Amino acid sequence: MSSSPKFTNDLIHESSPYLLQHAHNPVNWQPWNKSVLQQAIEENKPIIVSIGYSACHWCHVMEHESFEDESVAKIMNEHFICIKIDREERPDIDQVYMSAVQLMTGQGGWPLNCITMPDGRPFYGGTYFKKDQWKNVLLQLVALYKDDHHKVIEYAERLTEGVHSSEIIEKVTIAQPFTTDQLKKTIENWSDSFDPTYGGPNRAPKFMMPNTLEFLLYANYFRPNPIVKDHLELTLKKMAFGGIYDQVGGGFSRYSVDQTWKVPHFEKMLYDNAQLISLYSKAYQVDNNNLYKRIALETIGFVCRELMQNDGFFYSALDADSEGIEGKFYVWTKEKLQQLFPEDFNFISNYYHIDSYGYWEHENYILMRNKSEKEIAKHFAISEEEVQQKAININQSLLKHREKRVRPGLDDKMLTSWNGLMIKALLDAYNAFGDQEHLTLALRAANFIEQNLFVDDQKLFHSYKNGKVAIAGFLEDYACISEAFTYLFEVSTDPKWLEISLKLVNYTRTNFYDESSGMFFFTDKDDDPLITRKMEVMDNVIPSSNSILANTLFKLGKITNEEFYIETAQQMLLNVSSQLTQFGSSFSNWGILLTHQLINYYEVAIIGKNYNLIKSELRKSYLPHCVIVCGEKANNDLTLLKDRYKPSKTLIYVCTNHTCNQPYEKIEDVITQLQRIR
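^ thats the sequence. predicted structure below, dont judge the formating
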């Protein structure tokens, strides 16, 4: 029988897997709440704000080295109020203290450890600390806080002001025309950082940044550029062939520690995989490369197999570690592969590079590719179809054997914003491949959100677990769900999704909008205040909440003919446009909105008995520059469908700024018109 834990702290009452991981540390961890903050003030103790997430490898390392050590815990408990935060549950707190650490050190990451005054103003911080380093830092800070308190206060005040001003956006009041020169300069400046050998950025560690690639896909469609085209094709192939992609089970790890996409940081996040499904689906629409289709479908398979709960909502992440060892679940030894596949080992060795190219460490190999099916077929004197089938059979067998291993930990909280990204991904896949199951899955997740994550029909919660909602929604939740539901309206034609989306964006206008800047705060005005109210503007591994919302407002304006939405989106773009040309990769989703301003952006209305068939056929094409609204009969609530029904006909109207050409009946004519984008 197992003995009871020696220590238990207040995190035992939380639902976050990350917080529960620390519930038996000797550190007296507490969750972030009003009473804990009041305790710090009453006891006049500085606060340790320690932030991480369940799939974070170095968070686990620091926990094991420091937070499980009683001598470290003694220092922390005696001199500090210790607060643990799941950055995925509380991105608002993470933004504030990440900004502080970046201002102090010039870099950031997780685990994030920030020391603050009792009122939350930061005065010291960093990321990962080794045990002795952490102890020394804490003891020095204790002495500084006691002996030179006035100096600590002065620094905390200056740093807090820096955090407050770090993302202030000034409203541009003089309207500047958006030009193709802006787009050209953005790509020219950006292309200097392309990796010509392996794709992606020319640095390590290497993040996939799917939204940057989606922007380049769109920009190249609008203004073909051989440098951009080659970079896209190279990057999509190298990511798909690399160790960062799970060749056996599908799905991508969070990033590669090297420049070649070989060695992943093995954690798998819902938000990465959702966006990469969208990216590969759209890339397939552009050139029908079967590699892109396979990667998109295998990644959907991974998400549904390992991250989807019974009601169709999606969990957050899989850990990098299993049995305390990073990547153990995913790597293979040569001996094991020879044992499992005595007859096919030569094929596996060639296909997945069980050689110096695929070798990692400790006799382990990361399965990865560097040869096409054509090259493999030539080497073994078999057909490409035989290569593909043999690889499928081997992967199925490897997956079956791998399932017997101890699995990585599952972060089973479900985040509203990330599920919005996954709904959008399923819709992108449905459009590209025509599988009804993808639309069914998207509708299941959307219905779950509608039924479980809403308050008063317009207010969202951020997190869901074990039948309970938690934490008021942030702008990212409203932005991602309004984007997903608007898209779901276009694809499913069910008007309820448009109605909900409009309620959400109108709620953000009331509760998040900043009139002085023309942008939106990350937190609701009714939320408990932090030391500053941040705006999320720069795009990162997930596009910023402001850029997602701006793109959605633009689309809603086109659907509803409400100029207010379009004008708001254009003002938001105007506010950041000066930074876009210089820092394209950090403003890629804004770049998509910029491209919308430079082309013939179309509103397509399909009305008549065969609308669904025509819509499905039309959506197989890559059409990033239009909205599509459909119905069997006229809908007086939508200008695009009003007074356009003709009995016994299915008509297709192609409009720009709600000025329409004569209707078409042949889809070929519509596609020809839509391809006139310049």
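The two ends are 72 Å apart (CA to CA).
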